[in-house]
TrEMBL record:
Organism: Adiantum capillus-veneris (Maidenhair fern)
InterPro entries on file: ATPase_BadF, ATPase_NBD, Euk-type_GlcNAc_Kinase
Listed name of the protein: N-acetyl-D-glucosamine kinase
Coiled coil: none
GO molecular function term, any single one: N-acetylglucosamine kinase activity
EC number: 2.7.1.59
Family per record: Belongs to the eukaryotic-type N-acetylglucosamine kinase family.
Domain of life: Eukaryota
Domain ATPase BadF/BadG/BcrA/BcrD type: start-end pairs: 27-338
Gene3D superfamilies: 3.30.420.40
Amino acid sequence: MKRGRNRELWEFEREMTSNGAEGRVIVGVDGGATSTVCVCIAVPGTAYFDEPPSVLARAESSGSNHNSVGDDAAKLALEKVLADALMKAHRCRSAVQAVCLSLSGVDNTSDQQRMHQWLREVFPGDVKLAVCNDSVAALASGTLGRLHGCVLVAGTGSIAFGVSEDGQTARAAGVGPLLGEPGSGYSISQQALAAVMRAHDGRGPPTSLSKAVLQRLELSSPQELIGWMYKDYSWARVAAIVPTVKSCAAMGDPVAVKVLANAVEELAISVKAVVRRLNLAGENGTKPFPLVMVGGVLEVDNGWDLCAQLVDHIKGFYPGVKPIQPKIEPALGAAMLAWCSCSGLTNSLSG
């Protein structure tokens, strides 16, 4: 079998015998700006999932958003995580029945086609392949592979994506920090850093963020933030400050509280845009619909529960919303999507 561009990653296949039908697997990948996760599951015995499938193997690698890390680095991270997961599952690529790549930064047909072509080089033959935005797999992680409802992903970046009952799709945000992703980890951190600089030169009020951020970054003065930021303003590096912002907010710092309140407002706007375009809540806004919520920004940090605040805010205009925080990670959602695609049950993989 062709070994792809990075032959050394697949050397383990030389030591394995070809797997028969009883060893067939499905592969799902969730790739973001910060990290990439791949899981392998056994081929299910049913068309739909009534519960999350068991994971045979899991692997993790660096970020694979091509807009953030570059095309070559993204593909290398993806091939590494694919090879690592299959090696841990004791499977060759010949055992793979379907693969779904769900990637942040895959935003149009051109992106999909380019990544699909690359993936076919890694998995030649009759392997069923699907490529979609990471929001699609995130939705599937909360709905067991059934694409209906809305998902909000709030991590390093942010995006809202939805699918109506008749298969129509819509999205909001997900354009990267240069064009603006309010409510994302990058945006929250950037606003916090700006607040520190404003406090330093007198343009803004004093804030406990100043001391906390400098300690977090091991800097001695706010002036050093300039060099820190412009030395490497990669998205994940900046977004890592979010827990510090939540900690200051939990201690009552009004500047930090305002930054996070702005994030709640902006994330709610993204959800509202998708729900309205797809009419998920019905004409009067009370029709129930699932809202899957994933990403590090929505996790509780230092006692600050931004997700709960956001749900309360959204219920103010969509009282029928059914919030879901998946117990499984989006990579497993991607694996379920791969199987549904293989079974001809899912067509909305464009994100």
